[in-house]
Specification:
It contains 14 helices and no strands. With 287 residues, it is an all-alpha fold. The protein has a domain of 102 residues. Helix 11 crosses helix 14. It is elongated, with a radius of gyration of 24 Å. The N and C termini lie far apart (62 Å).
Length: 287
């Protein structure tokens, strides 16, 4: 049994965390004191989620770190954080919001939270006007999906997430729609999601009302369809321009707004291609 130092407990959360991991049973009482404190602070926080509560911030991470030691007691802990983020994600202080997300990732890494529950929440949080958070969530989403498919393709999970991403591409928030597309393209390029459904979902982005989404989707298809051999043998830019126009004609309606959008798309694609000496080759047999 680990020797107690009562003068340093239970206020020293870092030390208590280490002691609990080494001797879960002996320090259950100290943990419960902190857990009850957390629940009291959380109840108050719900009434005013705009505030910054450093003590709650510390306790949220502390509990997430030792959650695997008391799975029965903390069976509803993850859902408490999910509910809070779902209800108040746009008004939370950025640092508090990030803490809640980090705590949920810790629970996910300990297999105390289902991937679909966390990823669906994180996609919703892409709407937040917080670039640091969006970048953080995007990185985690790609990494988690990659890990889930590292040994073998998880078809059922992938289908569920792809359906969710498809709905996010239609989201009224342009940032969320664009990031969802970026994630799908990154997963495709990493050969994690390179099936028919992924390509077809990406293709629907060509019909988006958001210009940046249309540009990203067209650049993906245009650059991916040009092989290295074609680039080496080609002495002019006529071929890629033809492909751009062909794709755009399928996508855009004959309106002034669409004509302006098409012109902007072509300019951006052309600018991008000039920056790259060669583009990676992808297998579009899925199409």
């Amino acid at each position: 049994m680990v020797k107690r130092r009562n003068n340093q407990l239970p206020n020293n959360l870092s030390q208590l965390q280490n002691l609990i991991k080494r001797d879960t049973v002996s320090y259950k009482e100290e943990f419960m004191l902190q857990y009850e404190h957390y629940k009291a602070l959380l109840k108050v926080f719900w009434q005013n989620p705009i505030q910054i509560n450093k003590k709650l911030d510390e306790l949220v991470m502390f509990i997430a770190q030792v959650a695997h030691c008391y799975p029965d007691i903390l069976s509803g802990y993850a859902q408490e954080l999910i509910d809070l983020l779902n209800s108040h994600n746009t008004v939370l202080d950025p640092s508090m919001r990030m803490t809640f997300c980090r705590a949920l990732i810790l629970l996910r890494n300990k297999n105390l939270l289902q991937a679909t529950d966390l990823l669906s929440l994180f996609f919703q949080l892409l709407r937040c006007n917080d670039k640091a958070l969006r970048d953080f969530l995007q990185s985690h989403i790609v990494t988690d999906i990659k890990n889930l498919n590292s040994k073998h393709k998880n078809a059922q999970l992938n289908t569920t997430l792809q359906n969710f991403m498809f709905s996010m591409l239609k989201d009224s928030n342009p940032k969320a729609a664009k990031l969802s597309l970026d994630i799908m393209i990154e997963l495709y390029k990493k050969n994690i999601w390179n099936d028919t459904k992924t390509v077809n979902v990406i293709s629907t982005a060509c019909f988006s009302k958001v210009t940046k989404v249309v540009v990203t989707a067209l650049k993906f298809f245009v650059s991916s369809n040009v092989t290295k051999e074609d680039e080496e043998d080609s002495d002019s830019d006529d071929e890629p321009n033809t492909k751009e126009v062909a794709m755009a004609n399928k996508v855009n309606k004959k309106t002034r707004k669409r004509e302006k959008q098409l012109k902007k798309v072509k300019q951006l694609v052309q600018k991008s291609k000039k920056k790259k000496a060669a583009a990676p080759v992808y297998n579009f047999s899925a199409l």
